[in-house]
Amino acid sequence: MDDALAFSALVLALSGQLVQEIHSRVSQQGFADLRPAHGFAFARITAGATTTAHLADHLGVSKQAAAQLVEELVRKGYVVRRPHPGDARARLLELTERGWAATRAADRAARAAVAPWREALGDARFGALVADLTRLRPSGPIRPAW
């Protein structure tokens, strides 16, 4: 296999493994009712001033699909809708304390999930890998692979 194909396969495999590992660890911390896609939504909501339309754009889904996801997160107690100060038709989305707790759990899970990688490579090589991947990262949101 040439380097380009090997790189593609490795990045895709590591990405999938990382998402599943984080999800598993978040579930074990008391958030078993969340799916990986919820974490991508939380990432946009924590940025602030987020509406369902913004979330749809961030996730690359229809407004209807984003509205269903938001309704699910509201029903589960992770998100609340607040009046938008500049648009009476829109609602701003905010995480509840439970939503912030899930976000903190995901941060812990992400650190734990990559700890074996850091250990295998050592701090210097791991730091260099992060720096290299930072240079390669795409612009725009990190989206789930629907």
From TrEMBL:
SMART domains: HTH_MARR. It comes from the Bacteria. Residues 1-138 form the HTH marR-type domain. GO terms for biological process: response to stress. Pfam families: MarR_2 (PF12802). One of its GO terms (molecular function) is DNA-binding transcription factor activity. This is MarR family transcriptional regulator.
